[in-house]
Amino acid sequence: MKKTILFFLTFVFSLVVKAQSDERGYLVKVGDTAPDIEIRYLDGTVKKLSDFKGKVVMLQFTASWCGVCRKEMPYIEKDIWLKHKSNSDFILIGIDLKESAEKTEKFARDLKITYPLTLDPEGDSFYTYAEKNAGVTRNILIDREGKIVYLTRLYDPREFQEMVQFIDKLLR
Question: Which one-letter DSSP state was computed for residue 87?
């Protein structure tokens, strides 16, 4: 009986999660308040996303094994980070999915990325925003009030340029 109930509850939960996700595997949508996640920096510092309320925040979910991520990250570095890194109203956080600090550091070095790459060792942060089997290469823009205002999936140069313009607009 317990196994039957557990199976049923698991099945119902999976339907609820599927019903709430979009076609790109997101569990969140534009207009939602951004779920508060822990940000684990390579130096051991831990912050909460809510610590950055009042700033424009870009979360970039990535992984060293992701070819599309590797293609997009130099553009994030050049077109977003280098342009806005001295703006105290802007935070860019790369979140490396399920990799060690050593691998994450090497990943940043190899790609010559200077924006912060942080750790998501169990995938808790990623799975707060996307389905378990959803792929990385995701960017989430959050406005000063903590609302999600833009979502991307994969690297599409046109969508990327729209996101760059959206960031510029938010920071004016």
Answer: -
- DSSP 8-state secondary structure symbol assigned to residue 78: I
pTM tops 0.70, yes or no: yes
DSSP three-state, residue 17: helix
Q: Which residue has the tokens 């979140």?
A: 95
Long-range contacts of 164-169 (CB under 8 A, 24+ apart): 164/79, 164/80, 166/141, 167/56, 167/58, 167/80, 167/84, 167/90, 167/141
pLDDT in tens, the chain (172 residues): 555 444 443 443 443 433 345 688 999 999 999 999 999 999 999 999 999 999 999 999 999 999 999 999 999 999 999 999 999 999 999 999 999 999 999 999 999 999 999 999 999 999 999 999 898 999 999 999 999 999 999 999 999 999 999 999 999 9
